[in-house]
Amino acid sequence: MTKSSRQALPPKRERTRRQLIDAAIRVFAGKGVANSSIQEIAVAAGVANGTFYNHFPTKEAVMEAVAVQTARTLSERIDESYRHITDAAERMAIGNRRYVGLALDHPEWARMMMDVVLVSPELIEVTASYVREDLQLGIRQGRFRVPSQLAAMNAIIGTCTGAMRTAIAGTVPKNHAQATATVVLRALGIDFDEAAEIARRPLPPIPGGLVPRD
Amino acid sequence: MTKSSRQALPPKRERTRRQLIDAAIRVFAGKGVANSSIQEIAVAAGVANGTFYNHFPTKEAVMEAVAVQTARTLSERIDESYRHITDAAERMAIGNRRYVGLALDHPEWARMMMDVVLVSPELIEVTASYVREDLQLGIRQGRFRVPSQLAAMNAIIGTCTGAMRTAIAGTVPKNHAQATATVVLRALGIDFDEAAEIARRPLPPIPGGLVPRD
Amino acid sequence: MTKSSRQALPPKRERTRRQLIDAAIRVFAGKGVANSSIQEIAVAAGVANGTFYNHFPTKEAVMEAVAVQTARTLSERIDESYRHITDAAERMAIGNRRYVGLALDHPEWARMMMDVVLVSPELIEVTASYVREDLQLGIRQGRFRVPSQLAAMNAIIGTCTGAMRTAIAGTVPKNHAQATATVVLRALGIDFDEAAEIARRPLPPIPGGLVPRD
Amino acid sequence: MTKSSRQALPPKRERTRRQLIDAAIRVFAGKGVANSSIQEIAVAAGVANGTFYNHFPTKEAVMEAVAVQTARTLSERIDESYRHITDAAERMAIGNRRYVGLALDHPEWARMMMDVVLVSPELIEVTASYVREDLQLGIRQGRFRVPSQLAAMNAIIGTCTGAMRTAIAGTVPKNHAQATATVVLRALGIDFDEAAEIARRPLPPIPGGLVPRD
DNA sequence: GATGAATGAGGGTTCATTCAT
DNA sequence: CATGAATGAACCCTCATTCAT
Question: Is D198 helix (H, G, I), strand (E, B) or coil?
Answer without folding.
Answer: helix
